[in-house]
Amino acid sequence: MRRIHPAWTVAAVTFIALIGAAGFRATPSVLLQPLHDEFGWSLGTISAAVSVNLLLYGLTAPFAAALMDRFGIRRVAAAALLLVSAGSGLTLWMSQSWQLMLCWGVLVGLGTGSLALGFVATITGRWFVKHRGLVTGVLTAGGATGNLIFLPVLSRIAGSDGWRTAALTVSVAALLVVPLIYWRLRDFPADLGVTAYGGIGASRIDQPRGAARTALRGLRDAARTRAFWLLAGGFAICGATTNGLVGTHFIPAAHDHGMPQTTAAGLLALVGVFDIVGTIASGWLTDRVDSRILLGGYYFLRGLSLLVLPSILAATAHPSMLVFILFYGLDWVATVPPTVTLCREYFGAAGPIVFGWVFASHQFGAAIAATAAGLVRDQLGAYTMAWYGAGALAILASVLSLMLFAGKKIKTISPDLGLAVKTKAVKTKAVKTKAVKTKAVRA
């Protein structure tokens, strides 16, 4: 019998870890209203804790690979899950809003940020050569899978047993994965005396040292280009119109219209189902259609759907709402494959590093939207203006994406040296080579 390659075991454990970390991603939307009812804190105050979490999640992600390179994948992943468990569990004894900021914002933000895209990229980069893209896609779907699992469960628990039991459930779920991490996860294939799946040699030197310095250099050089700011601006709006607004406030907004919290949580979980389908379809389209056109279309259609949402929110999940869930779910993270492709196109080998910073802008936009929508609800008594504002921003993101046509392939950045090399210089070199060949023919 052929033995299963250890890389598949590592990938399976990684997937479970991502699901455990994703448990908290479903928590704010489910517990926002119960915390407001018990403590009397404004939705703006509670949303501010979510904003801190989203911001730290984004800022930690670019450095996750550096942390794992320095301390090891297993240690960082285990520590991250412990932070998620502690941040969710300690809320059981909180009595002040600053304690919510510390638990939900700081502890869980650092924990989930360490298990973001950097974690996935490190695992697939070290353990897979063959099927690396497939495994990356499956692991990226771990977050959506976590939402599918936890949203209905937490909503039902919060409704029947209270928000503390729901928070404890997330804490225990994250904690239970830690022993599995230490048992089956390894830093390098060489630790088990094997090669990466589909690779040759069992070298341990798969990740460059000084990853944090490389990340900062990548940001410095990318920030000098117009393309980076267009991509970062569009992705910041993407975060604001997904995680920050819908992911955090859809359930309380639906509750305002008389919809039961369990029903609203089920609809949000359904978004995750179509999210997976939309992401796979978007990856297929990215290989066939210009990514700028895809982004422009995705953001424009998302803007239209958000502009329509206030008029279809009701106490029941009527057909129009189900159409919105289907349409919006397909579009949720469909922006990721074309954005990754454009980062590679504009910044060459440094594309993954630059995407890490573009992703940070995504979470920055999400953090602003999470707080802003809560303040809108507190001041105006409804989320209507938040939906309209998000719809307008999404249409603006569509324009920013199409503006990328004006600056195609401006610069390529070397991730090792942090140098910006103009494409024009390469063309000049090619002309000189041609001149040398002509001279040789004449001779």
Could you explain how this protein is built, in words?
It holds the Pfam family MFS_1. By secondary structure, this protein is mainly α. It folds into 2 domains: 1-192, Up-down Bundle (Growth Hormone, Chain: A), CATH 1.20.1250.20; 218-402, Growth Hormone, Chain: A (Up-down Bundle). It has helices spanning 6-25, 27-39, 43-71, 73-89, 97-113, 117-127, 132-140, 142-161, 163-184, 211-222, 226-244, 246-256, 261-286, 291-312, 319-331, 336-347, 351-380, 384-402, 423-442; strands at residues 411-413, 420-422. It has a two-stranded antiparallel ribbon. The radius of gyration is 23 Å and the shape is globular. 53% of the residues are buried.
What is the overall pLDDT average? 81
Could you tell me the CATH topology label of the largest domain.
Growth Hormone, Chain: A
State the separation between the terminal residues, measured CA to CA.
66 Å
Unreliable spans are 410-443
* Shape by Cα distribution: globular
Number of domains: 2
Task: Give a quick set of tags describing it.
443 residues; globular; transmembrane transporter activity; Growth Hormone, Chain: A; MFS_trans_sf; transmembrane; 2 domains; mainly alpha
